[in-house]
Design brief:
The chain is an alpha/beta fold. The protein has 3 domains: about 40 residues, no CATH class; about 130 residues, 3-Layer(aba) Sandwich (Rossmann fold); about 130 residues, Rossmann fold (3-Layer(aba) Sandwich). It is about 40% helix and about 15% strand. The protein has a 6-stranded parallel beta sheet, covered by helices on one side. It has a 6-stranded mixed beta sheet with strand order 7-6-8-9-10-12, with helices on both faces. Helix 6 links the parallel strand 3 and strand 4. Helix 4 packs across helix 12. The N and C termini lie far apart (about 80 Å).
Length: about 325
């Protein structure tokens, strides 16, 4: 009796091949020996793999993102839409409002409309949704993955550890020694990597990391204002603060002004992302540029390759970040 609900990963493991190889068999792609193709076809039949209905002429991508309320999200959407348009694909936008994606209704809609794949942006999938997407042969590419639950996905991110290190080294070179750090949601690998880069740079400079100078933020203006205020109210306050996002850095601006502190004369501030806000605020914000549009475009391109049954060169792609020095950083007041 056939096994019910076998997943693509289970078929690949049983056949001793990669998931994309099984996908190539399902899509009738060349490049696989006849004996191996027959073995995979037999496993698909014996284990009751649920084949998806044939795809339409126009590829369809579900773009799942945690929130649409930030400039960071706008940049990602711009990159995904540009690549989808270039490839002649359509994009379906799903905002989770910070909740895990993958309700039964959503899975049913994906199956019904024949979605070719999912780009998952700083969101997590319900465990059942992960199993269903695999069973339905729907590939997933994750941008800035959460924790370790995306190990089976192709992932795209920036060199966040390097960015955290370079931001910290920039402030150290200016003479700062009390440097605060406000992360974004620490469940995101990107924010943990940035914090690790900061800690590493301090250690290389012979400065012990001080836990009292670190806060776990939310990447939003309100978080920067709240946690920036906490750091600035310390008896031995930091002379510089690194923020896990530009919008959160603007919240630090607000907290400094509430306390009569000038940027950069009394406090240096560094953000992350390099969204338009960096050039709108005064003084203009020093930040670590994340290639957000390029990250989303690359994730979309890789997803379309997977959906076509092609293999990708690496399951992990990291695009380079870059420190952009503007007017919000200076030597600490003597």
């Amino acid at each position: 009796m056939p096994e019910a609900g076998a997943t693509l990963a289970q078929i690949a493991e049983a056949a001793g091949v990669s998931i994309p190889t099984v996908s190539r068999v399902l899509n009738g792609k060349p490049g696989i020996s006849a004996p191996k193709r027959e073995e995979i076809e037999r496993l698909l039949e014996d284990r009751g793999y649920a084949r998806r209905k044939p795809r339409r002429g126009t590829p369809l991508i579900d773009f799942v993102i945690s929130s649409l309320e930030t400039q960071w999200a706008t940049e990602l959407l711009r990159g995904a839409q540009a690549e989808a348009a270039r490839a002649g694909a359509d994009l379906v936008l799903n905002a989770t409002d910070g909740r895990p994606a993958g309700s039964p209704d959503w899975i049913e809609r994906i199956s019904a409309r024949g979605t070719d794949g999912v780009v998952l942006v700083v969101s997590e999938l319900e465990p059942q949704a992960r199993r269903e997407l695999s069973r339905l042969q729907v590939p997933v590419v994750a941008i800035d993955p959460i924790g370790s639950d995306t190990e089976s996905f192709v992932t795209v991110s920036a060199t966040d550890w390097v960015g955290g290190r370079e931001a910290t080294e920039h402030l150290l070179a200016l003479g700062h020694r009390r440097i605060g750090f406000i992360t974004g949601p620490i469940t995101l690998e990107c924010h943990q990597d940035r914090l690790d880069g900061y800690t590493s740079a301090l250690g290389r400079a012979g400065i012990a990391a001080d836990p009292s100078l670190v806060r776990q933020g939310d990447s939003l203006i309100a978080g920067g204002q709240r946690f920036g205020g906490e750091l600035l109210d310390l008896t031995d306050r930091p002379t510089a603060i690194i923020s896990g996002s530009d919008e959160q850095a603007y919240g630090v601006y607000l907290a400094a002004r509430e306390r009569g502190l000038r940027i950069p004369e009394d406090l240096s501030v560094v953000g992350f992302d390099d969204v338009d806000l960096c050039r709108w605020v005064s003084p203009q914000l020093t930040t670590v540029r994340q290639p957000l549009s390029s990250m989303a475009a690359e994730a979309t391109r890789l997803l379309l390759k997977l959906a076509a049954g092609e293999e990708v060169a690496s399951p992990t792609v990291r695009l380079a970040s870059k420190l952009i020095v503007r007017d919000s950083t200076a030597a600490p007041a003597s």
